[in-house]
Design a protein that fits this description.
This protein has one helix and nine strands. The chain is mainly beta and about 100 residues long. The strands form two sheets. Strands 1-2-9-4-7 form a five-stranded antiparallel sheet. The longest helix is centred in the N-terminal third of the chain and has 4 residues.
Length: about 100
């Protein structure tokens, strides 16, 4: 599978591409265009974010983290956060434990 070919970037909402789902993990990619926001939410289980393309502004605990291509970030469980795409096209993956 080619993740980029399976993402359809939208002006009105983030793009999501399922990659793999097992009884232990959920693995998916998200695409954001410039200034597009993945609204505030929490992760219910341990999750690892990996930036594949572009750059993200990751808002958590009153801080802004700037994540660039190939950066990873362990998203804390049950802590509200929000993500914004910085470049023209931004692609990141999330792998969540179940």
């Amino acid at each position: 599978m080619n993740i980029l070919k399976n993402l359809s970037f939208h002006n009105d909402r983030p793009s999501v591409c399922p990659i793999q789902r097992t009884d232990k993990t959920n693995y998916f990619a998200i695409g954001l265009i410039h200034n597009q926001i993945l609204k505030k939410h929490t992760a219910n289980s341990p999750s690892l974010l990996t930036v594949l393309q572009g750059e993200l502004a990751f808002f958590i605990n009153g801080e802004t983290l700037h994540l660039k291509e190939f950066d990873t970030y362990d998203i804390p469980v049950m802590v509200e956060h929000e993500v914004k795409g910085v470049k023209e096209r931004n692609v990141f993956t999330i792998i969540q434990e179940k």
